[in-house]
Every structure is written in structure tokens, then in C-alpha cells.
Amino acid sequence: MKIENWICAKCSFIGPIDAFLFIPDPRPEPNARGWWLCTSCDEIDCVTSACDEPGCARKGSCGFPSPTGYRRTCFEHSIFNHGSKAHKVNADWRAMQEKLDHESKA
Ligand SMILES: [Zn+2]
Ligand SMILES: [Zn+2]
């Protein structure tokens, strides 16, 4: 799944990747890597993927598969937080897959 939103670790500005500025590396390959610049606070190299939960302004530090595709969210919204909605959805989804698996073998 494509990461839709990116976040600045410094000022918490969130936007699609087009909202940030890419600065190409003047060094030749293979050392060239380039940097992302935050257009909101001008900090460099502070851009990281954001939590894909709508309305959440945290960094997407957890990645996991889900019924709707691969997700990247903050810990709070991930399946690793046992109180989260994603955890519940994941548990139900797995239980259903196991059931189907079981039925197809029977
Ligand atoms: Zn920023
Ligand atoms: Zn979140």
C-alpha cells in the first residue's frame, strides 16, 4: 500500500509527499541519497511516514497487514496496542482466516 501521508518529526506538519521538497544529493551514485525538506519549518531530513488513521498526527512507527491492505500507524492505532480498533479487526480477521483454512482442509 502506498503511504499517503508524511509527517515532519520537528513541527508535526502532515501532508502528501508533494507537500515536501526533495533536495537532490550533489554526490555521484552510489552515495547519492538526497534529502526531504519540510516546507513548514525548513528542517531537513525530518520527514517520516505518518499514521494512516484519519485525523491522527503521530508518526507511523508500526507496520502490519490488514484486511484493507498493508497499514502503517502509530503504536496507539496499531494491532500491537491491545486496546485498539485495529487489534480487534486483526483478531477477527485472523480468526475468520483460520476458520476458512480449517474448512478447506476438512
Ligand atoms: Zn517541519
Ligand atoms: Zn495513529
What do you see in this structure?
The protein is 20% helix and 19% strand. It has a three-stranded antiparallel β-sheet with strand order 2-1-5, with no helix packed on it. It has a two-stranded antiparallel ribbon with strand order 3-4. It has one domain. The chain has 106 residues and is an alpha+beta fold. A hairpin with a 6-residue loop joins strand 6 and strand 7. The chain starts with 5 loop residues before the first strand and ends with a helix. The longest helix has 21 residues. It is elongated, with a radius of gyration of 18 Å. The site of one zinc ion has 9 residues, from loops.
Could you give the topology of this structure?
Blueprint: E1 6-8, E2 14-15, E3 21-23, E4 35-37, E5 47-49, E6 62-64, E7 71-73, H1 85-105
Antiparallel strand pairs: 1-2, 1-5, 3-4, 6-7
The structure holds zinc ion (2 copies).
Helix content: 10-25%
| Proportion in β-strands | 15-25%
**Assembly of the depicted chains:** single chain
Helix and strand composition category: alpha+beta
Tell me the number of helical segments per DSSP (H or I, 4 or more residues long). Answer: 1
Radius of gyration: 18 Å
Number of domains: 1
Task: List the uncertain runs.
Answer: none
Kindly state the mean pLDDT as a whole number?
A: 91
